[in-house]
Amino acid sequence: MYLSRLLLSGEQLHNPYEIHRTLWAAFPDTPDQARDFLFRVEQSSSRQAQVLMQSQRQPIAEAEHARLLASKLFELNVLEGSQLRFLLIANPVKTIVDEQGRLNSKGEVKKCRVPLINETEQVAWLQRKLADAALVSMVEVEKQLPLHFRKGGKPGKIQPYAFKGVLQVANAQALQDLLQYGIGHAKAFGCGLLSLAR
Length: 198
Hints:
The protein is α+β, with helices and mostly antiparallel strands. The protein is 16% helix and 43% strand. It is globular and about 50 Å long.
């Protein structure tokens, strides 16, 4: 896998969904391939954003509105029992069923995702997501700025949170899978990238 830092520019950066679309431009040879990258906005202003991206393929150096600052190949190599610091920007949510029993277009009862706003529920959400891979020994939760976006002309909002702490690896392969595929929803909006350090 590759870990890269990119500088994005342009007026479209006010919409987090457009950041995702801009990053796609760094992989021009396979437009129909499923997204195989995760990212996190590290710094941003109204016209620029510095992004940390983890990807299966190496991004190109120059793409429309995206400039590659650095990129390196790395191997996921975690050992069971080791303690690691972690950082995760995530969108902790739960799915609820429509209480009035309204149906969707498939004839199923409608479901929707609602954000978890209580810190105890957020920590429990993180522990469930990591349950097969690691034990969380310490965690701090910090509310981030909400992400307002437009997709298909419809407005939306995501409330991300930063989870920082220490974990102990229980299952190295399960943790590597989480590192590769991300955690939770809203990955197209910069959520889900789990970063680890000694």
